[in-house]
Each structure stands twice: as C-alpha cells, then as structure tokens.
C-alpha cells in the first residue's frame, strides 16, 4: 500500500509545475485584458475547464492553465462572478510557490462572507468529485 501511495504522489507531482510570477500576473490581470480586446490566449499555454460551480448569487469557473511545451499545469485560474454586484474576479491558485500563495490569500481576504461561503462550497464539490473519481 505504501508503494502505491508513493507512486501516486510521484505521478501527481510530475503533472504540475511551479507557478511563475509571469503566469500569476497573466491570470489575475492579463487574461481579463486579453478577453476584453478579443485577443488570443497567451502564446504557449492552453486552458482546460476543471469544474464549473453555480448557485443563485455566484458563478465560479475553474480552469487549468497548461504549459503547451511541458504539458504541465502551471496553475488553476478561477473566474468568479457575483450576480449580486455584477463583479468579475480573476484568481490564480498557484502551485508550489509560497509567495504567490500569499497573494492569492490576500485576494480572498477582501471578499465578504457570502462569496467566501459559496467559494468554499465550490472547492468542497471539486474535492468530493476528485476523491470520487479516484475510487
């Protein structure tokens, strides 16, 4: 059992790469500009939908940003939309970069309890879905 767990952990770690500052900035700032101007996605990357969560007030789209050269996921982009205020937020869930994880947490710290609750439910559903697909 320990060998199987170790193999799964190794396989999982090889499918992801550390998020760079450039990737983080593109997801949190550049992507919105790209869409607004009708431009193509950043060269050398692709987006793949991971999960889409919707409730009465909020919509969360989770997408993996994948480096086309390495075929590894660089980060998870979250597009959060509030129907209450009409606001759209672009979040980057970084991988393996503590400094960028702090920035991600700072972005979340300004959200009110209502959107944080909905976001927590979305993350819980992703986790449940992931665990169920492994079994």
UniProtKB/TrEMBL annotation:
Keywords: Signal. It comes from the Bacteria. Residues 1-17 form the signal peptide. This is Spi protease inhibitor domain-containing protein.
């Amino acid at each position: 059992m320990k060998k199987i767990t170790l193999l799964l952990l190794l396989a999982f770690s090889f499918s992801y790469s550390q998020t760079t500052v450039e990737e983080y900035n593109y997801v949190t700032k550049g992507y919105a500009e790209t869409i607004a101007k009708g431009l193509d996605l950043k060269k050398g990357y692709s987006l793949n939908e991971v999960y889409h969560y919707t409730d009465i007030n909020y919509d969360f789209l989770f997408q993996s940003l994948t480096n086309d050269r390495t075929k590894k996921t660089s980060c998870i982009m979250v597009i959060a939309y509030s129907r209450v205020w009409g606001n759209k937020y672009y979040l980057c869930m970084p991988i393996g970069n503590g400094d960028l994880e702090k920035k991600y947490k700072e972005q979340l710290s300004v959200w009110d309890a209502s959107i944080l609750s909905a976001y927590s439910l979305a993350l819980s559903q992703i986790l449940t879905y992931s665990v169920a697909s492994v079994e």
